[in-house]
Amino acid sequence: MTDQRANDVLWLRDRPTAAPRKAEPLSVARIVAAAVAELDEHGVERLTMRRLAQRLEVTSTALYWHVRTKEDVLDLAVDHVLGEVPIPTETDPRSAARVLLVDWRAAMLRHPWSPTLLGRPLLGPNVLARVEFLQATLVRAGLVGDDLQVATKLLSNVVIGTAMNDASWRRLDNPSLVAEVGRFIVGQRDRYPTLASSGFLDDGSSDDELFVRGLDRVLDAVGLGCAPRR
Fold this sequence. Notes:
61% of the residues lie in helices and 0% in strands. The chain is mostly helical. The longest helix has 28 residues, at 145-172.
């Protein structure tokens, strides 16, 4: 965590339990739903407390009773996204971890602004519940101590990193640009011989397929059994 006081972190701060009598009817759940919709439509850069209040058709004063800052809203929105990830019912540790991580990435790609915010303190109840499940699954697979911590961070970073990269390319939604980049690399074959011959950006596989295949390799590496090679 960067130099950030505990009182600046939503999840570590005492929060009001009741609104004043004359406050407009509003709830944190309504705020979060509106914030996620706003972020899905316009992204992080355009989210302001004023726009959010307008979307909710409330005054800024009513909004600030429930959330102190825009950062509070972003923390709540990220936790909401992670709440969309189902807790797996699989009993086999490898299958359970695999399902969780595939669904985790899918949730972030449904909300492509979310991977860019995952450098913030992730202490919301939905985030912690999923990380708790992941670590408990790794423990059931026999990982302890440093191996447990390394595996947890590695798997989380694989999901977050690939979601961030894939969301960036999906936002472009420009096949002609991808093709142009491919032609540029082929035209620079002397400089980039491996990239030119490997089909760097277009090897015929979707980003979903590449993620799952890569995830299987990482699960192998951290000791959760071995996936069949294709």
